[in-house]
Amino acid sequence: MNREGRGATAPGAISNSAPATFTGNRALDLEEGLLFEIGRTEVTGVDLDEPDAFALRLGGLERTAPLGLPGLSEPEAMRHYVRLSRMNYGIDSGLFPLGSCTMKHNPRLNERMARLSGFADLHPLQPVSTVQGALGLIDELCRWLLELTGMAAVAFTPKAGAHGELCGMMAIKAALAARGDARSVVLVPESAHGTNPATAALLGYEVRSIPARADGTVDPESVKAALSPEVAALMLTNPNTCGLFERNVVEIAAAVHEAGAYFYADGANFNAILGKVRIGDLGVDAMHINLHKTFSTPHGGGGPGAGPVVLSPALAPFAPLPAVVADADGLRLVETTDAPETAQALGRMCAFHGQMGMFVRALSWMLSHGADGMRQASEDAVLSANYIRASLMDLMSAPFATRPAMHEALFDDAWLEGTGLTTLDVAKALIDEGYHPMTVYFPLVVHGAMLIEPTESESKASLDLFIAALRDLALAAKAGDMARFQGAPYYAPRRRLDETRAARAPVLRWTAPAPVPRAAE
């Protein structure tokens, strides 16, 4: 197949003219109905005897109506989920170019370590004397994170990036309250992740936006002009969501501190500078670290996540409970503010201490790579992103192209002008090429954005094939091959959805279709 043009159908490829099948299946591409279409609500997959008489202990909260779930046999249930898994795209399927999200390879060694019985079988209410190994691992992970960031303390309880943002900003609010300073404003650049202003608003702060300058970064003069005795903090992502390093970050931090405010760094993109920059040296007071983005723990499916927060000496006393403390008797969890170490703690953010499995995976990745390996991972991620950008800039328009990218390559939709096509059309056509689409329409400071992040995990051959696929799509778009885009995806299990309608009027309850009348025999 000619990669620079549509070319002929490759040998063995599925043709759109293939005959229909009775089942709806296409060989191993199996049509999968909903559970309600497969099973029956009046049966279960397991035979259970009627229980003997017993007294209910639910205080009137017991169910009064049938559950209404379909019953399946074990093989049916297994096949259902295996078939669904084959319709999904994951990092084990191929290159996953989502920008900002960092879909990094999850090494199987990490998975093996997390499944060791001493970690996998832990219960959060075990006596502390029986979990010294687990606490020791958390303490060691803390040591590595502090060394990598140059900070003073780590809060492990947050479950994800946004939860980590909340933790960091709560620490800032607690520190301000401790000095009797009731500040009410948080500054957030236009290029921030959307969770930044949401977090500040959740804590009751007024959010004021800082514009991006023409090169995609934050102007320190704009920050200085916005600072006042009302400002509690600046929330800055570095590298930012345009994939650029904020080169004036030290000047910005100094201005924020001079105004009596704190500097919160969104650490979502720490994977681009790991082993290269200690954010504590830049003047940062708090930063969350997405373990899935930087340290290879699994990402997606709503969890389990982990977003530890590193804190500067000024904020360390306000870290949430519980905390791991070492003393003469070993490691222990401090869960109250009675101890001297936790007297100013902001309180408890969740029931237990965090996601142990993610801690094991992250430390396994760190120990496997060592200091030089982690630094190389950042360098390779940056190299891969710049390689993709340089390989596509003759066909696709890249804003801020006068500066090298960091870990992701950003394109806009200017190159589609006159084609009648949109960023969404390109993303849908990429599905037919066997790839999950890149992040689209983010960051908002770029019109029709296409944000690509290859990570350090991909080989050059993998990058070359992805680049060739995008080049082929770009050439087809410029040649006016509208059908290839506007009807895409053609080969996915489902065709293009009305995404706007699905978001505004979602159908959340399945109802059985009306029976189809049959003609009398």
UniProtKB/TrEMBL annotation:
Transmembrane segments: none annotated. It is an enzyme of class 1 (oxidoreductase). Residues 377-473 form the Glycine dehydrogenase C-terminal domain. GO terms for cellular component: cytosol; glycine cleavage complex. It comes from the Bacteria. Keywords: Oxidoreductase, Pyridoxal phosphate. Its EC number is 1.4.4.2. SUPFAM superfamilies: PLP-dependent transferases. The keyword Membrane does not apply. It catalyses: N(6)-[(R)-lipoyl]-L-lysyl-[glycine-cleavage complex H protein] + glycine + H(+) = N(6)-[(R)-S(8)-aminomethyldihydrolipoyl]-L-lysyl-[glycine-cleavage complex H protein] + CO2. One of its GO terms (biological process) is glycine decarboxylation via glycine cleavage system. Residues 182-300 form the Aminotransferase class V domain. One of its GO terms (molecular function) is pyridoxal phosphate binding. The keyword Oxidoreductase applies. The glycine cleavage system catalyzes the degradation of glycine. The P protein binds the alpha-amino group of glycine through its pyridoxal phosphate cofactor; CO(2) is released and the remaining methylamine moiety is then transferred to the lipoamide cofactor of the H protein. This is glycine dehydrogenase (aminomethyl-transferring).
